[in-house]
Write a structure and sequence with these properties.
Blueprint (H helix, E strand, L loop, with lengths): L6 E2 L7 E5 L3 H9 L6 E6 L10 H5 L12 H4 L6 E5 L1 E6 L4 E5 L5 E5 L2 E4 L3 E3 L17 H20 L3 H7 L1 E5 L3 H17 L13 E5 L11 H13 L2 E4 L3 E5 L3 E6 L2 E6 L2 E4 L3 E3 L1 H10 L9 E2 L12 E3 L4 E2 L8 H19 L16 E6 L2 E6 L2 E4 H15 L3 H16 L11 H13 L1
Parallel strand pairs: 1-7, 2-3, 2-8, 3-4, 8-19, 10-11, 10-16, 11-12, 18-20
Antiparallel strand pairs: 5-6, 6-7, 9-17, 13-14, 14-15, 21-22, 22-23
Helix pairs in contact: 1-9, 4-5, 4-12
């Protein structure tokens, strides 16, 4: 096939800012530069801006994908100096100041820049066992969440058809690896599905007998939270029927089971559904920049950046969000990426206006942490204050709905939440994709 010559972006006399990644950080950079005389190009391999904290609600049928993944062009439509490009970045030439990317049709394009912000995010970390990903998928994209929804619901369908008790039990066993906020939230929703949403929909199985196991190699659930909230969360999960197993590490997995190790020794749990919520690995872009500049990375592949989020040895290049590490080791949460994005956008604006002074270092303002446990239950810690139960749940909902883009998405999300609160079985987004159902059925053969 003929390989086309890379096409350069249209020339402009204004300073060019290329932002790689349309997530929380990248979008905030564009918004911070909205009133600056620059040309911003926001490049991403998807056409949507994803609100990752609510992915688990797509995976468990509470919300449809569209409410948490608005079109990226729509998100930055008011920033008249910003254009979006659907392409995947595969090379950054720091010497020539050019970003190289491939469009969905394999067209090579070059995006020249005066300032570059890389916000590539992170993906799942399987601690050197990438082959586990086919048997224990995680949730980082809309496709991940939809596939997982099909797999979870498909497991109940195949359990309904099973004629052997052992096979039925395997389909009705769900193992979540990782007891951080994502693991806790997905385990809680799996329990809600089994105990309250699905029981009246099946005739040959009792979905309330489903076994949900939450395991973690560490000694507590929700490690970043206060001990009081950790204890509360564990009690609530166990009251919902979740089997919480701490100090228990996954050592292997295949289509039919997962092997774990604890103080009691090795054990294999027979389960057709495993969900990975343990650990993250920085975007490959971090390794690319590290190699080009000699900048170190940590064990998770995160790139070390300066106090102003700049990349040492590369003038005008910044990196933010989950793919970087700083001297104060900030958590990999959306708030960090958003605040860094705003900070870097303002820093670039100052430089464009001729400010050559030493920048004030980035300072993260911790606005608190929250996690839901199940319907009407959550935990939150805000500036030293801990909140549990329904009040924390209402606070969680308010914060998350306000961070969604657009009032249509906010109102749609509130409507679906209210329906599910009023009647547990009103969880209407339970479509099983053919690929997801087939994946559940074929997993034993895949092993």
């Amino acid at each position: 096939m003929h390989k086309s010559t890379p096409r350069r972006a249209q020339e402009s006399h204004r300073p060019k800012v290329v932002v790689v990644g349309g997530g929380f950080g990248g979008v905030r950079v564009a918004k911070a530069l909205a009133r600056t005389d620059v040309e911003v190009t926001l490049v991403d391999r998807t056409n949507h801006h994803l609100f990752q904290p609510l992915l688990y609600q797509v995976a468990t049928g509470i919300l449809p994908p569209g409410l948490i993944a608005p079109a990226l062009r729509r998100v930055v439509r008011k920033e008249r100096n910003t254009r979006t490009v659907l392409a995947e970045v595969h090379d950054i030439d720091l010497e020539r100041k050019v970003v190289r990317a491939a469009t969905p049709t394999a067209q090579e394009i070059e995006l020249p820049y005066d300032y570059l912000v890389v916000a590539g995010g992170a993906t799942h970390a399987y601690f050197g066992h990438q082959q586990w990903s086919q048997f224990a998928p995680g949730m980082k994209t809309i496709e991940d969440a939809r596939t997982l929804r099909s797999h979870i619901l498909g497991a109940y369908e195949l359990a309904e058809l099973a004629t052997d008790d052992t096979e039925r039990a395997a389909y009705l066993t769900f193992v979540v690896v990782g007891a951080g906020p994502t693991g806790v939230e997905i385990a809680g929703q799996l329990a809600e599905l089994a105990r309250h949403v699905l029981p009246e929909d099946y005739r040959s199985i009792d979905t309330r007998r489903a076994k949900i196991v939450l395991l973690d190699a560490g000694p507590s659930v929700l490690p970043p939270f206060a001990p009081k909230l950790q204890r509360y969360t564990r009690r609530r999960l166990e009251a919902m029927g979740v089997e919480v197993r701490l100090n228990t590490a996954a050592t292997d997995t295949d289509a039919e089971s997962i092997a774990v190790r604890s103080s009691a020794g090795q054990e294999r749990i027979v389960a057709r559904t495993k969900i990975w919520a343990a650990g993250v690995q920085a975007s490959p872009l971090a390794a690319m920049l590290a190699k080009a500049t000699g900048t170190p990375t940590d064990r998770a592949g995160r790139l070390a950046v300066g106090p102003d989020c700049s990349l040492p040895g590369a003038d005008g290049v910044y990196a933010i969000g989950d793919m970087v590490t700083t001297a104060d080791r900030l958590p990999g949460v959306a708030q960090v990426a958003m605040q860094q994005g705003t900070y870097v956008g303002k820093r670039i604006a100052d430089r464009v206006k001729g400010d050559t002074s030493t920048p004030t270092p980035f300072r993260y303002v911790d606005k608190g942490s929250m996690a839901t446990i199940g319907a009407r239950q959550a935990v939150a810690q805000v500036r030293g204050v801990t909140i549990t139960g329904y009040l924390a749940y209402l606070l969680w909902r308010y914060v998350h709905v306000m961070f969604l883009v657009g009032w249509g998405n906010r109102l749609g999300t509130l409507y679906d939440w209210l329906r599910s609160l009023r009647h547990a079985r009103n969880r209407g987004h339970r479509l099983i994709g053919l690929t997801g159902a087939q994946a559940v059925e074929e997993m034993p053969q895949a092993a």
